[in-house]
């Protein structure tokens, strides 16, 4: 078991496989300088522009402006607020991300953006996850909203095309941030994203809820459109977007659930509009309202069709309470288009009240599971509501030959082996020598083994993922940990490290002169270290010639790049 798991004991077993060690030693002095620059800039701006909980939440969540946080420390600091923190390896599926949050765990990507991407990166990084998300979680109502959102979002069904798009976006974002990808690789990845994007033609509930998440938790504002305050993590963690969000060029729209879920977004571009909620209570009401439209709430044939299009693991809950977890392969329908039989493919498990039924895990139903849906012929009472006498009247007793005919035309015929009950009601009837047919179509043949009949007139809920995640995903491998090999810092990283030491322990004049000389001769375009040196020297009458030299060099660097110009000017302003 890796150290990250032992440090975050509240992580459920099925989520532990996504957890990795932070490997704090991997952060270079340049990484630390990037963190410090972004945090200083954002704190200076956000102390007035953000929700009031932000500034206090920074300290309460274990975050320092001066250094990249240790996520284990954050895990402890967030505990009084009902939260924990865990390191993950970059992009994880949306269902998994929401599942972490439903359990009160903030998943944090431990990588940090490159200096060249200091203003914004589409790839998850520790600035966004830790400095963006964590502080506001200390606000009680917002914390309630995010946990509730996690519970609901983890059940949202996506289409297969959306799953494919997620993988393409993950590859593209990681290439952009890696700094080692060729132009050709990036162009190919971008083309793949565009191709996958074009294939997504359905607005799924997963896409709708991801939009709600994006325009609230990631890019939300609160208050009034005339005087909004920032609370979204994307705005709190981006040097550029946080500032730009308050400019007139970014349209402010009063929060409205329908508008939000019908407004798409592009993670690679600045947002042209933002939604302003009145309060976090308004968001809680909105996500509860959205839940009423989801397959997990509505059930029925339409929900089964949604799961079929997803091509991924889902859970199907019958009116008896029986839950079937697997990947839906086929749906048989009647003349009115209503589902009368469903079948999963591959490993499937049965559960009740989110606990796997003993003997009915994936190893037993390794080749799928089929189940009729609907009413039995000539019966007023649903099968799941029948008492022992009513069951016997239909031939449902252990050892008896039994023939069950459904109104749909599905016929189940075999020898009853066992009746499984929960709360004195039948949920599963096991047959031997069983045949299931719909007209001339054989749905189950006696040679296939025992047939376990799912009891339940209706499928009342369909949701993404497993009913008992701990058991269903127990055999999945952990995310491969990137090997950490301690390396020597580059000459530039060493210079950053020396300046960092001076800021903490006092300036070493001879060493500072040497560093300035080395910067001048070897690193003419590095702006951030020069800004850090000016911060040390600004209040000093020492090295006036060197101060003038650095100032001149920064003016020359500004001319080379408009973005550098803005970053330098903002850095020097805080150095005054």
UniProtKB/TrEMBL annotation:
<feature type="coiled-coil region">
    <location>
        <begin position="172"/>
        <end position="206"/>
    </location>
</feature>
<dbReference type="InterPro" id="IPR019774">
    <property type="entry name" value="Aromatic-AA_hydroxylase_C"/>
</dbReference>
<dbReference type="GO" id="GO:0016714">
    <property type="term" value="F:oxidoreductase activity, acting on paired donors, with incorporation or reduction of molecular oxygen, reduced pteridine as one donor, and incorporation of one atom of oxygen"/>
</dbReference>
<dbReference type="GO" id="GO:0009072">
    <property type="term" value="P:aromatic amino acid metabolic process"/>
</dbReference>
<dbReference type="InterPro" id="IPR001273">
    <property type="entry name" value="ArAA_hydroxylase"/>
</dbReference>
<comment type="similarity">
    <text>Belongs to the biopterin-dependent aromatic amino acid hydroxylase family.</text>
</comment>
<feature type="binding site">
    <location>
        <position position="133"/>
    </location>
    <ligand>
        <name>Fe cation</name>
    </ligand>
</feature>
<feature type="binding site">
    <location>
        <position position="128"/>
    </location>
    <ligand>
        <name>Fe cation</name>
    </ligand>
</feature>
<keyword id="KW-0560">Oxidoreductase</keyword>
<dbReference type="Pfam" id="PF00351">
    <property type="entry name" value="Biopterin_H"/>
</dbReference>
<dbReference type="InterPro" id="IPR036329">
    <property type="entry name" value="Aro-AA_hydroxylase_C_sf"/>
</dbReference>
<protein>
    <submittedName>
        <fullName>Phenylalanine 4-hydroxylase</fullName>
    </submittedName>
</protein>
<keyword id="KW-0175">Coiled coil</keyword>
<keyword id="KW-0408">Iron</keyword>
<feature type="binding site">
    <location>
        <position position="218"/>
    </location>
    <ligand>
        <name>Fe cation</name>
    </ligand>
</feature>
<dbReference type="GO" id="GO:0005506">
    <property type="term" value="F:iron ion binding"/>
</dbReference>
<dbReference type="InterPro" id="IPR036951">
    <property type="entry name" value="ArAA_hydroxylase_sf"/>
</dbReference>
<feature type="domain" description="Biopterin-dependent aromatic amino acid hydroxylase family profile">
    <location>
        <begin position="1"/>
        <end position="340"/>
    </location>
</feature>
<keyword id="KW-0503">Monooxygenase</keyword>
<keyword id="KW-0479">Metal-binding</keyword>
């Amino acid at each position: 078991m890796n150290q990250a798991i032992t440090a975050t004991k509240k992580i459920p077993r099925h989520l532990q496989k996504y957890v990795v060690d932070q490997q704090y030693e991997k952060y270079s002095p340049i990484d630390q300088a990037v963190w410090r620059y972004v945090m200083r800039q954002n704190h200076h701006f956000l102390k007035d522009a953000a929700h009031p909980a932000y500034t206090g939440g920074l300290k309460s969540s274990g975050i320092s402006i001066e250094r990249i946080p240790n996520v284990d420390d954050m895990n402890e600091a967030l505990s009084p607020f009902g939260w924990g923190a865990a390191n993950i390896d970059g992009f994880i599926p949306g269902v998994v991300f929401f599942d972490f949050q439903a359990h009160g765990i903030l998943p944090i990507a431990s990588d940090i953006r490159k200096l060249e991407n200091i203003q914004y990166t589409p790839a998850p990084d520790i600035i966004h996850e830790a400095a963006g998300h964590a502080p506001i979680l200390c606000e009680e109502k917002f914390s309630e909203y995010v946990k509730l959102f996690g519970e609901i979002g983890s059940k949202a069904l996506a289409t297969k095309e959306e799953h494919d798009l997620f993988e393409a976006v993950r590859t593209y974002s990681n290439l952009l941030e890696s700094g080692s990808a060729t132009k050709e690789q990036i162009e190919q990845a971008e083309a793949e994203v565009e191709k996958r994007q074009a294939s997504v033609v359905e607005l799924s509930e997963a896409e709708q809820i991801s939009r709600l998440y994006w325009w609230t938790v990631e890019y939300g504002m609160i208050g009034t459109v005339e005087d909004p305050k920032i609370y979204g993590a994307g705005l709190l963690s981006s040097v550029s977007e946080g500032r730009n969000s308050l400019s007139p060029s970014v349209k402010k729209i009063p929060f409205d659930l329908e508008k939000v879920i019908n407004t798409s977004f592009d993670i690679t571009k600045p947002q042209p509009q933002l939604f302003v909620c009145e309060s976090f209570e308004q968001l809680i009401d909105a996500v509860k309202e959205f839940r009423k439209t989801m397959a997990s709430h509505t059930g029925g044939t339409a929900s089964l069709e949604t799961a079929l299009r997803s091509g991924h693991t889902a859970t199907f809950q019958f009116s008896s309470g029986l839950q079937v977890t697997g990947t839906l392969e086929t749906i048989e329908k009647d003349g009115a288009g209503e589902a009368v039989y469903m079948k999963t493919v591959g490993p499937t498990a049965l559960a009740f009240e989110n606990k796997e039924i003993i003997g009915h895990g994936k190893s037993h139903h390794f080749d799928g599971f089929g189940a009729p849906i609907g009413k039995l012929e000539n019966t007023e009472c649903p099968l799941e509501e029948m008492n022992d006498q009513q069951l016997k009247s239909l031939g449902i007793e252990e050892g008896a030959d039994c023939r069950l005919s459904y109104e749909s035309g599905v016929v189940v015929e075999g020898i009853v082996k066992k009746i499984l009950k929960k709360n004195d009601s039948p949920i599963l009837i096991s047959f031997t020598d069983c045949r299931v047919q719909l007209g001339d179509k054989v749905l189950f043949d006696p040679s296939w083994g025992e047939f376990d009949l799912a009891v339940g007139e209706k499928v009342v809920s369909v949701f993404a993922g497993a009913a008992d995640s701990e058991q269903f995903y127990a055999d999945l491998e952990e995310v491969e940990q990137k090997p950490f090999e301690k390396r020597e810092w580059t000459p530039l990283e060493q210079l950053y490290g020396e300046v960092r030491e001076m800021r903490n322990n006092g300036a070493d004049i001879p060493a500072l002169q040497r560093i300035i000389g080395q910067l001048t001769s070897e690193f003419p375009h590095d702006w951030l270290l020069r800004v850090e040196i000016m911060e040390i020297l600004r209040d000093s009458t020492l090295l006036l010639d060197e101060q003038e030299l650095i100032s001149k060099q920064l003016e020359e660097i500004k001319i080379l790049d408009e973005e550098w110009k803005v970053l330098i000017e903002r850095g020097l302003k805080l150095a005054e």
